[in-house]
Every structure is written in structure tokens, then in C-alpha cells.
Amino acid sequence: MMSDLDACITLTDDQYNLIDNSLMQISGVMGLIIEVSQYRGEHENKNINNSAWLVMTVIKNIRSQLEQKAKPNTWE
């Protein structure tokens, strides 16, 4: 039996682009946080940077999965 996670996701180009652009905007904001965060002490800055990098990694993984799931089987 196929689980919901294995189901083929069919997205229009507009839907795919909307999701992808939204993830890229979030990623950009996280990058900005990393660049402009003021020094607030070693421990606090380390937590800010680690959190921002974690969010960016999650976004990268979501985008990768989105790309793989959105591809028709004929693309492989």
C-alpha cells in the first residue's frame, strides 16, 4: 500500500515557482540574519548563527525534495 509520502505530487509550474520562491525568500532572510547580527557575546551569536544555518539547511532539503517529487517519472 502506498503511503501519502509516496504519492506523486503534481504541481503546475506556477505552484512550483510560488513554493520555490517563498523558500528562497526565507533562505535570504536567514542569510541576512547571519550577516547583520550584531555581536551580543560569543554564546548568543553562536546560537543565532547555528539556528540560521539550521533553517537554511532545512529549506535546502525541502527544495531538493520538492524538485524530486515534482518531476514527472518521464524525466528520469
Question: What does it look like?
Answer:
This protein is an all-alpha fold and 76 residues long. It has one domain (12-70). It has helices spanning 13-36, 42-70. The longest helix is centred in the C-terminal third of the chain and has 29 residues, at 42-70. It starts with 12 loop residues before the first helix and ends in a 6-residue tail after the last helix.
- Quaternary structure of the protein: single chain
What would you call the structural class?
Answer: mainly alpha
SSE topology string:
HH
Low-confidence stretches: none
Computed CA radius of gyration, to the nearest angstrom? 17 Å
Q: What's the shape?
A: elongated
Q: Could you report the average pLDDT, rounded to the nearest whole number?
A: 74
For the sheet with most strands, the description reads: none
- Residues in β-strands, percent: under 5%
**What is the tally of beta strands?**
0
The share of residues in helices is 55-70%
Q: How many structural domains in the coordinates? A: 1
Q: Please count the helical segments.
A: 2
Gap between N and C termini, in Å?
Answer: 23 Å
